[in-house]
Amino acid sequence: MGKCEQCIIKQFNALKSLTKDELIRISGCKSSKKIKKGEVIFEEGEVLNGVYCIRDGICKLSKLSENGKDQIVKMVIKGQLLGQRSIISGQSSNLQAVALNDMEVCFIPKNEIISDLQRNPKFSFDVLQDMARDLKDSDDIIVNMAQKTVKQRLAEALIYIQENFGENPDGTLSVLLSREDYASIVGTATESAIRVLSQFKREGLISTIGKFIKIENLNGLKRVE
Amino acid sequence: MGKCEQCIIKQFNALKSLTKDELIRISGCKSSKKIKKGEVIFEEGEVLNGVYCIRDGICKLSKLSENGKDQIVKMVIKGQLLGQRSIISGQSSNLQAVALNDMEVCFIPKNEIISDLQRNPKFSFDVLQDMARDLKDSDDIIVNMAQKTVKQRLAEALIYIQENFGENPDGTLSVLLSREDYASIVGTATESAIRVLSQFKREGLISTIGKFIKIENLNGLKRVE
DNA sequence: CTGTTGATATGATTTTGGTCATATTTCAAG
DNA sequence: CTTGAAATATGACCAAAATCATATCAACAG
Predict the structure, then answer these.
(1) Which residues of B125-153 are buried (b: 16+ CB within 10 A; e: fewer)?
(2) Residue B109 gets which letter from DSSP?
(3) Most buried residue, A85, A100, A117, B10, by most Cβ within 10 Å?
């Protein structure tokens, strides 16, 4: 099993602020897991016993609405930590996590994280900064949900995905999402998401290669009204 | 000027975790302010030089959308801290803060808060917990915005305001909001908010006494579809 | 008391997007 | 290669909510 002290993934998250000793201790109690695409990492309402450090892959965090539809709230990618919020609040998770592609994660037990948070101010400040960023992102999402049209939100989602999760060699978005996932990100009906994507394609804003989507006209997408 | 060590307001926020020494130091550099209803506490994009501890009153945090409409993202009330997020992230504020009634606040300089965060793990863990709670609330708001109707959102807003901000002796909601504010909370047009409130009144779910709203049928509001 | 202003209210119309129905395509299992 | 299931696509229709147009009301300065 890999050693946290030597793992480069930690550069991308708050674990980088841990001391060598703390990392060695984590190394000793962490466990590595492989998670297949579509697999549930944790359920809404489940009590988490630790956090996941994502070594590879992407997952979606979603919440079931009262009307029975799933709403994707956030996507978490390689390098980021998953589950801090629940660990810190001590509450059960308010979101479900599902792998969007094959993932590799390290599971770090709750006690270890909590004691590091209480011992290492630099680490806890780093986590604070992560959460502050998340909070800002959430504010933006709320405003977009409330004030923008489905077309605008979908255009922005495509841009966001390209900018944050990267593209394949052929220029297509590296994350493969179903139309239902897109609908669930922008908070609309699956049919509406399909319709809007078809329209974007007709207008030359995007193209598709197999199941993958490629942004053809970034500025056009940004100007969607 | 009041002394933080003796102030009871701090019981309601993370400042309760500071030591007596730390509180005395804050007392020495804080400043008290009175803010009139409608006054702007800070603007979107403004760099904050500290946090506000709210001794009395309520304010709204809103963000200007690209379509020119203001979206209320959060309301902050007596006992809570205002501006932590910006101080922690080191970025300018992404929200505007406006007093909803006359307020009394204490302004605590940034440096003092930051150094306490880095020195006192209990304090920083408390702030972490606050932010974790906020993050969960934001998730819920996102899901509601995406999946519920204007009528449902407005009904929930009324219930939320009653439960969290209390009521006057006559049973009316203690926070006085304009129809425009209600629209801005649920993310709809002012006319729509007015229409829905009128409908609620016609159906006996709420009543009005002067400018104040009174919830007459809580269960009815909860069942709104 | 009157005129002005901003908030509230309501009607008429249009737009957006949800729902339901039905094809079509894709892909994997047999 | 067929068959069946799931994902994608598209049309028709309907409901929710935005927009535009007025009207009414409350508060207040002059």
Answers:
(1) bbbbebbbebbbebbebbbbbbbbebbbb
(2) E
(3) A85
Which pair of tokens denotes residue A102?
């094959």
Residue A87 and residue B80: Cα distance in Å, rounded?
A: 22
Under a CB-based contact definition with an 8 Å cutoff, are residues A48 and A83 in contact? yes
The answer to whether strand C lies under 7 Å from the CB of residue A217 is no
B202's tokens: 């016609």
Distance between CA atoms of residues A52 and A184, nearest Å: 24
Nucleotides of strand C within 7 Å of the protein's CB atoms:
7-12, 16-21, 27
* Best residue of B133, B147, B181, B185 to probe chain A, by most A CBs closer than 10 Å: B147
Chain A residues within an 8 Å CB radius of B89: 129, 132-133, 136
Model confidence, pTM: 0.95
Token duo for residue A98: 């599902």
Beta partners for residue A56, in sequence order = A104
CA of A188 to C1' of C19 (A): 12
Closest to A106 in 3D by CA, of A203, A8, A214: A8
Residue A188 burial by Cβ neighbours in a 10 Å radius (0-12, 13-18, 19+): buried
Q: Measure CA B99 to chain center.
A: 10
- Residue pair B117/B124 in contact (Cβ under 8 Å)? The answer is yes
Chain D bases under 7 Å from protein CB? Answer: 7-12, 16-21, 27
- Reported as a single tens digit per residue, the pLDDT across A141-189 is 999 999 999 999 999 999 999 999 999 999 999 999 999 999 999 999 9
Neighbours of B39 (CB within 10 A): 14
CA A208 / C1′ D10 distance in Å: 18
**Residue B8 buriedness (CB in 10 A; 0-12 / 13-18 / 19+):** exposed
Tokens, residue B214: 């009174």
> Angle of helix B121-147 relative to helix B110-119, nearest 10 degrees?
110
- Taking contacts as CB-CB distances below 8 angstroms, the residues of chain B near A65 are 143-144, 146-148
Nearest residue to A56 (alpha-carbon basis) of A73, A76, A38, A70: A76
CB B48 within 8 A of CB B93: yes
Segment (H or E) for A95:
none
- Alpha helices (runs of H) in chain A, residue ranges in sequence order: 20-29, 84-89, 110-119, 121-147, 150-165, 179-186, 190-202, 218-223
